[in-house]
Amino acid sequence: MRYFRQALALMREEKLFSCIYILGTALAIAFTMVIAVVYYAKLADIAPEVNRSRTVYVKGMAKRAVNDTLRWEPTNYTATQVKEWLYTLKSAEVVSATVNGSRYSSDRQYLKCDNHKLVPVVARRVDANFFKVYQFRFVYGRPFTQEECLNENNYIENATMPAVISRDIAEQAFGKGVDPVGKTLNYGYLIRIVGVIEPTSSIMEESFGQLFLALDQKAEQVIEVFGQSFQALDWEAEHVIVVLKEGCTVQDLKKELAEIARKRSVSDKEYDYSIIGTLLPHAQMKMSEDGVAHSWSSIFKSLFPKVFVLLLVPALNLSGLVAARMRRRVAEMGVRKAFGAKRRTLLTQVITENLVLTLCGGFVGLVITWLLLYVFRSWLFFAVGNTAFTLPEPTVDGEMLFSPLIFVIGLLVCIVLNLMAALIPAWLSLRNPIVESMNEKK
After folding, report:
1. Whole-angstrom distance, CA of residue 3 vs CA of residue 360
2. What's residue 439's pLDDT?
3. Predicted local confidence at residue 219, as pLDDT
């Protein structure tokens, strides 16, 4: 406690030094914390993406002709394969298929209201299990069910497709406070609204959407709409989301998919199939800039130099300030050593004094971090990953910014920066002989 009181007294005496030290620390911590918060928002189990830690993305299989031993070609899972192979995976708690995945069209898409008003939307084509993977909060209605997707009468009798929309889109289309469940909108074809969800942040790129359309599970069926018959094609899933069961691993999933590929190769006389390079755990995919899952060692090697430089450069500057300050205090330290003060005691005092300044800088740095994240959120959060810049401006809520993990990271950064800046110059100064230190001019 005595050291803290001395540190506060020195801060009052050396205001310019204290301000420069605190500001330098704040900027270093702010830049480091911005990276931490952005990655936390991308990786942590945050609603509605509460299963990120157990999520694996399956991007399809690779196939090659039986007589071709070299060239593998990527191929997506068809609707039939998704239903027969993937929905029944033993290592999966739930499996969901989407047509467009997290890749959004760069073209504007619109809903047409009864009053001919056009409402721009971000649309997704998903199956019913999508609402089991992601925990949306429903304001009105419910998610569409697998039975609704399977029942072609929805398209024959009602000539509508089941859909879920976000509350902001519902308010634009029907007005505030109106329950739109059961109403229809025109999306090039009629859609029937079965549920309305609370809007989510576009930072949640795997789950974000404003219009969710039901994938027709009746693959390769002839259906009639308005008296006209047409062939419903067997769609291909560009994005299959697998939430692993508790206790199951990616290796368990890989073994199951490998067995599926083997059986497929045996039954198909024209092609051999493989699952090489198709499993993308959520964290590894988001940490890899090219969207391909790399090993954690390669991710660490790529990320560590960036964080190290962000800490090293300010630490060197602060270390110079500490060294200059210590030179002014050499005589004081010499007198204290002459009266029996141990080097360890003096070193502890110096580190404590700088820790107080560092913690003050850390608090200022956190404030700067939140300001940067709010003002530059459209760029900062979309700079990590492959999200399209055509998405709506992201919202940042408290769960993303305030978390025990972020607090611990901030505290560790403060301590590391303090040690890097204060320990070496203080140690070098305290190594001077007592007589030399006492004769040092102030």
Report:
1. 16
2. 54
3. 44
Regions of the chain short of the pLDDT cut 50? 101-102, 106, 153-157, 219-233, 385-389, 435, 437-438, 442
Two tokens at 47? 């609603």
Residue 337: what pLDDT? 67
* Token pair in block for residue 399: 């769960």
Q: How many CB atoms lie within 10 A of CB 427?
A: 14
Q: Please report the pLDDT score of residue 349 as a whole number.
A: 76
Q: Provide the angle, in degrees to the nearest 10, between the axes of the packed helices 404-430 and 343-375.
A: 140
d(CA 381, CA 49): 16
pLDDT, tens digit (0-9, with 9 covering 90-100), for 174-198: 999 899 999 999 988 888 999 999 9
- Which residue's structure tokens are 């540190």? 7
- Angstrom CA distances, 96 to 126, 238, 303, 426, stand at 8, 11, 31, 58
Beta strands 228-232 and 221-225: pairing type? antiparallel
Residue 46 is given by DSSP the state B
Give residue for tokens 């107080």. 356
The string over 72-108, giving b where at least 16 C-beta atoms fall within 10 Å of a residue's C-beta and e elsewhere, is: eeeebbbbebbbebbbebebbebbbbbbebbebeeee
Which residues have CB under 8 Å from 300's CB, separation 6+?
Answer: none
Residues present in the chain in total: 442
pTM: 0.77
Give whole-number Cα distances, 295 to 78, 292, 305, 306, in Å: 29, 10, 17, 18
What does the radius of gyration of the chain's CA atoms come to, in whole angstroms?
A: 30
According to the model, what pLDDT value does residue 226 have? 41
Residue closest to 397 by CA, chosen among 29, 19, 14, 48: 48
Bridge partner residues of 64 (DSSP) = 272
